[in-house]
Write a structure and sequence with these properties.
Blueprint (H helix, E strand, L loop, with lengths): L1 H9 L3 H16 L13 H30 L4 E2 L5 E6 L11 E10 L4 E5 L5 E4 L7 H7 L7 E6 L20 E11 L1
Antiparallel strand pairs: 1-2, 2-6, 3-4, 3-5, 3-7, 6-7
Length: 187
C-alpha cells in the first residue's frame, strides 16, 4: 500500500520505480567497494630508456656510415658532429662562412645509391648559411668549403632529415650523401 502511494506520488509505475532504485544504487556505489586501478608512470625511466635507445640507434647509424665510406674508399674526414666529408676538387675562391649567401649545385642520395634530389650548375639553389631552413649538416659542410670546391659529404640522419624524413623521397632516420659544388659565396 505504501509502495503504491509512493509510486503515485512520483507518477511512475512499480517497475519503473524498481529500475530507478537499481540505477541509483549502481551509480551511487560505483567505485565504492573496489579500489580504482591507478598506474604510476615512471617518467625518469621512460626518459632513460629513450636516451639509451637513441644512443644505440646513433651508434648503429655511425657504424653504417663508416662501413659505407670504407666500401667506397673515400678519404673522408669526420667532424665532432659525425659529419663525414671529402673535398675532392679544390676551388680558388673565398671560404664560405656563417651568414654568407651561397649558391650551390648538388645531388642528394641515400646510402643505397637511390638519388633523391638534385640542383645543377645551370639551375642552382641559393640560401643563407646558418639562417635558412636546410639540413644542419649542409650548413656545417659548406663552412668547410670555398668557392669552386666540390665536396662529397655523408650526413647522419640527425644532421639531415631526422626522425621523420622529408615525407617524400627521404625515409625516416636516413643518412644521406651530398655531392656539392659551391659556385658562389656572397656576404
Amino acid at each position: 500500500m505504501i509502495l503504491s502511494k509512493f509510486c503515485a506520488f512520483l507518477n511512475v509505475g512499480k517497475i519503473n520505480l524498481i529500475y530507478i532504485l537499481i540505477a541509483t544504487v549502481c551509480i551511487g556505489c560505483n567505485g565504492c567497494s573496489e579500489k580504482q586501478n591507478t598506474q604510476v608512470i615512471d617518467y625518469d625511466k621512460i626518459q632513460k630508456d629513450l636516451i639509451e635507445d637513441n644512443k644505440q640507434k646513433h651508434n648503429v647509424e655511425i657504424k653504417e656510415i663508416k662501413k659505407f665510406v670504407a666500401k667506397n674508399k673515400w678519404p673522408m674526414q669526420e667532424t665532432n658532429t659525425g659529419l663525414h666529408y671529402w673535398i675532392y676538387e679544390n676551388g680558388t675562391g673565398k671560404h664560405a662562412k656563417f651568414n654568407d649567401v651561397v649558391t650551390i649545385s648538388f645531388k642528394v642520395s641515400l646510402l643505397d645509391g637511390t638519388q633523391c634530389y638534385q640542383a645543377t650548375d645551370n639551375d642552382p639553389r641559393q640560401f643563407k648559411i646558418g639562417m635558412d631552413n636546410v639540413e644542419t649538416g649542409l650548413h656545417e659542410v659548406l663552412q668547410l668549403m670555398k668557392e669552386g670546391d666540390r665536396c662529397r659529404a655523408v650526413l647522419p640522419s640527425y644532421l639531415a632529415f631526422g626522425l621523420t624524413g622529408d615525407s617524400d623521397k627521404i625515409p625516416s632516420s636516413a643518412s644521406v650523401v651530398y655531392d656539392i659544388h659551391l659556385l658562389k659565396t656572397m656576404e
